[in-house]
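Hi R.,

Here's the chain you asked about this morning:
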Amino acid sequence: MKRSYRGVLLLCLVLFLNLLFTQYTVNLFFAQRYELTIVLAAANLLTFPLAWFIYRKEKRAGQ
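And the predicted structure, written out as tokens:
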């Protein structure tokens, strides 16, 4: 099963966004800015289905 560079790069970008959202969520939680913490936590949760969609699409394209 051959992977394309586009799929790998997109998954790396999603992983980077996930790390970024997690870091900002933790930092804002300790700064007691709870509204932005909830928004970033929700954005972090939305990146997982996006990564799953990209993975499944690349898996099907490689068959």
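Residues 11 and 51 are 6 Å apart (CA to CA).

Let me know if you need anything else.
M.
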